[in-house]
Structures are given as structure tokens and as C-alpha cells.
Specification:
Strands 6-7-5-8-9-10 form a six-stranded parallel β-sheet, with helices on both faces. It has a six-stranded mixed β-sheet with strand order 14-15-19-16-17-18. The chain has a four-stranded parallel β-sheet with strand order 1-2-3-4, with helices on both faces. It has 16 helices and 19 strands. With about 425 residues, the protein is of the alpha/beta class. It starts with a helix and ends in a 14-residue tail after the last strand.
Length: about 425
């Protein structure tokens, strides 16, 4: 089926569903495939649950006129999203980077939403499926779109740009994440800067962190409009007054100085805040409003959260982890003025052949620091820690059992690790 024909179905049924367990009445179900599932097998269930149509790519599942047969369901979803995007002459802001892109996106969304009708990536649905689904949320009254873009292979940002057709964009930073897919830092740089190349080629606007040497090094190759932020040299600048437990800073906007106190842990959120300020100001949101919104912003989903329990204060930053973000979080935690500082670290994923080396390096980095206790969780940390005499647990459940007999009290605790470790499960026991 041609995209324009499928689009007519979409106009009449603008809700898209990819999970037969969570169907909206009158939606179109797209039968996506994965390594361990075939969405075609759930098309009948989706229709029974209330979908009006089911897009499938296997003839044997087509039993009546409610089935839409295509060559490839994912490709059809992506083409439909791009076709829909092309109907709107509105700003589309793309955000990518190694660390902080979801937090930055949420900050920008909070600021921009005050003055505009916004469609933004939900959570971190930032891949070849999440981006199309976000684009298909655009309505006739949408004024600005914010799209988060993730990648773990070369060329993926280019493909996502071709889908989203961004007019504005930023790279938060570049570091050593997803090495398993990229192989080395040079490939990561080339992949992330595909966003710059696309915007430069298509006359877009780039918001760039001048304090990041890697990103600043790309400026000489860029001729499109550039808005800079960061440190004392950008169009939007500032200094950190305090970073623990919550980030406090002084920012300079239009030559006026403002004090700003956030609810986020860590100096590494400084650049995320300035990014949101730069985009909010660019789109004419009043400075007073920007400051108020950022001060009221509360992180969630284990991203730079400060959680006070009955007996401890927790810094929950366990949504994602890589060598760079681990070190930044640890360094900030060291600045905290507390006698009892406890470090709970979970495995870092997607490091490929570098995994053992990076976990060893991190253990050696923290073992002599001024922590009252260090606890490691996960098979990678357990494997490399055998001779370093730091408590290590193979998984969260093992640690929780130990914690039952060895409670931690009256402490500041940093919880940091990759999402797959599910470190948030320990919060109720601390």
C-alpha cells in the first residue's frame, strides 16, 4: 500500500498502537517485529480489543478488510511519520548526545510548553520506532515539536533526521557510551555530529555548548545559524554556585544576572539547564518564566533525583550509566559535605570488549576515595572486584538480602548504574 493511501486511514484514525495489550479504541495497530516476537500474531487481538485497523506484512494473517497489508510494517510506520511531518511548517527541535539528552529534553519541554502547544518525545522513546511514534502525535494545532534522538550505530542520527526533518537541534555532549555498537569514541563523534551536518546542509539552527571541546571543534565546519551556551563564553552563560545536594547557579541572560536553584543533583546538569534557557529565550519565552519553570522542575525516573527516606538521603541517578557519567556523578558526590557518604554502583552495559577494562578502571578510581562504604552490584563488577576487597553482589536481590541484616542509616547515598540493573529496587530498603 502506498504511503498516501495509508495516510488517509491515519487521518480518520489518528491514534497509533504497537502493543496489543494497550489498545486505544479506533486506533491503527502496527504489527512490528522484534528478535523474540512477531506483531502479526497479535493483530487479531488488537482488532478485538478495539483497533479499527491492523497493519501487517504477512499475507496469512489477513482475514478481512480491517487488515492493511504492506511489504514491511516498520518501514511503513516510518514513511507514514515522515509523510505526516511534511504537512507541518513548524519548528522541530532535535536533541541528541551521550549524556543528559532526556533531562535536557524534559527541561526544554517544560519551558517551551508554557507558551506553545508542544509535542515532545515521551520518556526516552528516541529510536527508529520511538521517533516515528512521536512525529505521528503532531496535531493541526501543534506549534513546536521536540524530538529526542538516540543512536548506537553510525548513520542512525542521519536516518532519524531524514524522518523528523529537524529545523533546530543540539548535541548535549559526547562521551563513551554504547561502545559495543560504536567501537570507539571517534565513531561516536561522527555519529552524533550527523545532526550538525543535517542542520547545516538544510539551513537549520544549532544550539551548541562552547565549553565542550569536541563540539566546539566542529564550529569551523558549520555555516548555519549558531546559538552558543555554556560557561562564560556563550550567548547564555553562567557559573555554578553549588552542586550538592542540589545544583545552584548564577546565569547571565541578555546581560542580566539571575540566581537559580534547581531540584537536580550534580554540576553535570549545569549544561542541561543552560541548554533549556538558550532555547526558551530563542523562542521568546520570558526570562522570569524560564527561571520559575526550571526552579520548579522536579526530575523523575531515577534521573538526578534527590530522595529523602526516613533514615537516609538518596541521590538516585540510576536510569543510565557509562564511564563518563559514572565519574561525573561520583566526583560531584565527593563534594558533598557529609561524613557518611555511601556509594552504590551497578554494572555499566553496552561497553562491548571495553567492559572489563572500564569496570576495573572505575573500581580503582573509587576504592581510595573518602567514602564510608562502597558497594558494587552486578556480574561485571563482581568479576573484576575479586582482589580489591570491596563488597560486591551479583544482583540487586542479593544486596537486598544482605541489607536486611546490615542496614545503612544516617547517610548520603549515591545510587548509580545502568537501567538494566534495576537499582531503583533498593530504594525501599534504604
Amino acid at each position: 500500500m502506498k504511503t498516501d493511501t495509508l495516510y488517509r486511514f491515519f487521518i480518520r484514525n489518528p491514534e497509533i498502537c504497537t502493543d496489543s495489550r494497550n489498545v486505544s479504541k479506533g486506533s491503527i495497530f502496527f504489527a512490528l517485529k522484534g528478535e523474540s516476537f512477531n506483531g502479526n500474531q497479535f493483530a487479531a487481538q488488537a482488532l478485538k480489543q478495539g483497533s479499527s485497523y491492523a497493519v501487517v506484512d504477512e499475507q496469512k494473517y489477513v482475514t478481512d478488510e480491517r487488515y492493511i497489508l504492506v511489504d514491511d510494517v516498520l518501514f511503513s510506520l516510518q514513511k507514514l511519520a515522515m509523510f505526516h511531518r511534511m504537512h507541518f511548517n513548524i519548528p522541530v527541535i532535535a536533541i541528541t548526545g551521550t549524556n543528559g539528552k532526556t533531562t535536557t529534553k524534559e527541561l526544554i519541554n517544560s519551558v517551551i510548553r508554557k507558551e506553545y502547544r508542544v509535542v515532545s518525545t515521551y520518556g526516552n522513546l528516541n529510536n527508529h520506532i520511538g521517533v516515528p511514534l512521536s512525529l505521528l502525535k503532531i496535531k493541526d494545532n501543534t506549534e513546536i515539536v521536540i524530538i529526542e534522538m538516540g543512536a548506537n550505530h553510525r548513520g542512525e542520527i542521519t536516518k532519524l533526521c531524514e524522518l523528523a526533518i529537524p529545523t533546530h537541534g543540539m548535541i548535549t555532549n559526547i562521551g563513551t557510551a554504547h561502545l559495543e555498537g560504536f567501537g570507539n569514541i571517534e565513531t561516536i563523534v561522527k555519529t552524533k555530529t550527523e545532526l550538525y551536518e543535517y542542520l547545516d546542509k538544510n539551513g537549520g539552527t544549532i544550539f551548541i555548548n562552547r565549553e565542550n571541546e569536541i563540539l566546539a571543534g566542529c564550529l569551523s565546519k558549520i555555516s548555519c545559524e549558531k546559538i552558543s551556551y555554556g560557561g562564560i563564553s556563550g550567548n547564555y552563560s553562567g557559573i555554578i554556585k553549588n552542586s550538592v545536594p542540589a545544583l545552584e547557579l548564577k546565569v547571565l541572560i541578555d546581560n542580566n544576572s539571575f540566581a537559580l536553584k534547581t531540584n537536580m543533583f550534580g554540576a553535570y546538569n549545569f549544561e542541561n539547564v543552560l541548554a533549556a534557557i538558550s532555547i526558551g529565550s530563542y523562542f521568546n519565552v520570558e526570562t522570569k518564566t524560564i527561571i520559575e519553570i526550571i526552579e520548579g522542575f522536579k526530575p523523575y525516573d531515577n534521573r538526578s533525583q534527590i530522595v529523602k527516606t526516613v533514615v537516609n538521603t538518596l541521590i538516585c541517578d540510576a536510569y543510565n550509566a557509562n564511564p563518563a557519567s559514572m565519574k561525573m556523578a561520583i566526583d560531584n558526590f565527593l563534594l558533598m559535605n557529609s561524613v557518611k557518604k555511601v556509594l552504590i554502583l551497578g554494572d555499566m552495559f553496552e561497553l562491548g570488549e571495553n567492559s572489563e577494562k572500564e569496570h576495573i578502571k572505575l573500581v580503582k578510581y573509587v576504592k581510595d576515595k573518602s567514602f564510608s562504604r562502597i558497594i558494587l552490584i552486578g556480574k561485571f563488577f563482581s568479576a573484576v572486584n575479586q582482589t580489591l576487597q570491596i563488597p560486591a553482589f551479583i544482583d540487586v536481590d542479593s544486596f537486598v538480602k544482605w541489607l536486611d541484616k546490615n542496614p545503612i542509616k544516617s547517610s548520603y547515598i549515591l545510587i548509580k548504574g545502568s537501567r538494566g540493573m534495576k537499582l531503583e529496587k533498593v530504594i525501599d530498603y534504604l
